[in-house]
Amino acid sequence: MFKSSLVQKKVVILGGGESGTGAAILAKSKGFDVFLSDRGQLNQKYIDILHRENIPFEQGIHSESRVLESDLIIKSPGIPDTVPLIIAVKEKGIPVISEIEFASRYTSAKLIAITGSNGKTTTTLLTYHLLKNAGLNVGLAGNIGDSFAWQVAEKQFDYYVLEISSFQLDNIEDFHPQIAVLLNITPDHLDRYGYNFQNYIDSKFNIVRNQTTADHLIYFEDSEVIAAELSKRNIDSQKIKISLANKLSEGAYLDEQKLISNAANGTFEQNFEELPIKGPHNAINALAAISVAQLLGVSSEKISEGLKSFTNAPHRLEEVEVIDGVTYINDSKATNVDSVFYALGSFERPIVLIAGGVDKGNDYSQIEALVRNKVKALIVLSKDSDKLESYFFGIVPQIYITQDVQDAVNKAQEWSIAGDIVLLSPACASFDLFKNYEDRGEKFKAAVRNLTSQK
C-alpha cells in the first residue's frame, strides 16, 4: 500500500536506467501519470520497454517545466541532490525519493537491506544464495540485479535481499528493512558529501532510521566508526554483532579459521578454509550472511551447503589466470582504499599492484604498511598519477605510469616471477579511462589472456 499521506498523481522519474525504468513500470501499474526524463541517452533496451509500456519519456534533456509540475520525483541514485534541478524541485516542496523507497511502499515482503563501504555486493549475493538454496521465495534487488520496483510490479516474493548504497539511502522516507546489515563505514564518495565524512556516515545510518524493536541490525562491531555512532544514537532494533577480533557468546565471529555464529535458535560452525571465498573481508561477509539466514530459520545443514556452493560475482578478487606461476587477480570493484586494504590482506605472496583512476579524496596511509610489506611494484593505471606516485615513491621499489591496460599488464608480467600475485585493485573510480568498474575489469582480463596468445 502507499504509505505516504499525500496522494500523488503525476510522477516524474529522473534517470532512465534499470532502476528508473522499473520505477516507471511500477508507477504506471499503480495508476500514476508517469513521465521519465533522462539528461543522457537511454539504452535501446529501455527505450523499447518504455515504448512497449506506453510510458512517455525524453532523453538528452530535463524539461524543467514538466518536472516542476509533478507531485512526486523518483530520482536516480546517480543524480546528486545539489544539482540545480533538484534544488528547484525541493524549493517547490515536491517530494524526492529513491526507487527503493517507492518500491518498498508496494510490497509486504520482508526486506533484508545490506550496506557498507565495502563488501555489500558479496554479502548480498551470498545472503540471497543461502536463502534461495534453502527454498525461500526470495528476490534480489537494490544496487544489483533487476530493478526492485520492476520486480514488485510483476513478481511476488516473500523476501527481498537488497544491496543498498548511500546514494539510495539519501532519498528514503519510510523505507523499513526488517533486517539491516551494516558491514563497515570508511571514507568513500566524499566528493558527493561535501568532503565531510560525517555526512556519509549519516547517510549509511539511514538504513536503521525506520526500524522498530521487532527488527534486527547486524553490524561489524570491530568498526570504530560504527561503534562510535551506535554509542551516540538511539536505535530501537535488536542488535547482532559480528567480529573478527572477539569471541561472542551472542553473535557471529571468526575463531582461528572457523566461522561461529551463536543465535537464539542454535550455534552454527563452519571451517572457513572450505569455502570458495577467501580473505578476512569475506569472513565478515560470510558471518553477516550466516546471521541473516539463522534469523530466518534456515537450518545449519542448508547454510553450510549454500556457503560451499556459492560463486561470487566478477571483479571481486576474481582469479583470472595463472601464467608461468604468476596468479592474476581482478579486483576492479575495489574503488576505495578500504577495499584495497582487504585485498592486500588476502595474500601472503609478493604482489605487483595495479591501481589508479579517479581519486575520491583517498587517504593512502590506511594501506601504507601493507604496501610496504607486500607490494614489490606499483603500476599506476590512470590519467592522473600524481597522488599515487608521490605517496608511494620511496615505499615501493618500482613504480610505472601508464594509461593503457595492456601496457600495464605487460609491465606486470615483466616485473613478476613465479609465485607472485598481479593484483588489479585500483582504490579509485574507473571513469577516467573506462565506462565503469566492470569495463575496467573485463579489459584487464582480456589483457591478461592476451599474454598467453603473445607467446
UniProtKB/TrEMBL annotation:
Sorted alphabetically, the Gene Ontology BP terms of this entry are: cell division; cell wall organization; peptidoglycan biosynthetic process; regulation of cell shape
Query: Per the database record, which ranges form the Mur ligase central domain?
Result: 114-293
Its localization reads:
Cytoplasm
What InterPro entries does the database record attribute to this sequence?
Mur-like_cat_sf, Mur_ligase_C, Mur_ligase_C_dom_sf, Mur_ligase_cen, MurD
Sorted alphabetically, the keyword list is: ATP-binding, Cell cycle, Cell division, Cell shape, Cell wall biogenesis/degradation, Cytoplasm, Ligase, Nucleotide-binding, Peptidoglycan synthesis
Primary residence: cytoplasm
Q: Where does ATP bind?
A: G116, S117, N118, G119, K120, T121, T122
Q: Where is the Mur ligase C-terminal domain?
A: 315-428
Involved pathway(s): Cell wall biogenesis; peptidoglycan biosynthesis
Among the GO molecular function terms of this UniProt record, one is: ATP binding
Q: Which GO terms describe its cellular component?
A: cytoplasm
Top-level taxon of the source organism: Bacteria
E.C. number: 6.3.2.9
Q: Which Pfam families match?
A: Mur_ligase_C, Mur_ligase_M, MurD-like_N
The reactions it catalyses are: UDP-N-acetyl-alpha-D-muramoyl-L-alanine + D-glutamate + ATP = UDP-N-acetyl-alpha-D-muramoyl-L-alanyl-D-glutamate + ADP + phosphate + H(+)
Query: Which HAMAP family does this entry report, sorted A to Z?
Result: MurD (MF_00639)
Q: Which family does it belong to?
A: Belongs to the MurCDEF family.
Function noted in UniProt = Cell wall formation. Catalyzes the addition of glutamate to the nucleotide precursor UDP-N-acetylmuramoyl-L-alanine (UMA).
The record's PANTHER family line, in alphabetical order, gives: UDP-N-ACETYLMURAMOYLALANINE--D-GLUTAMATE LIGASE
Q: What protein am I looking at?
A: UDP-N-acetylmuramoylalanine--D-glutamate ligase
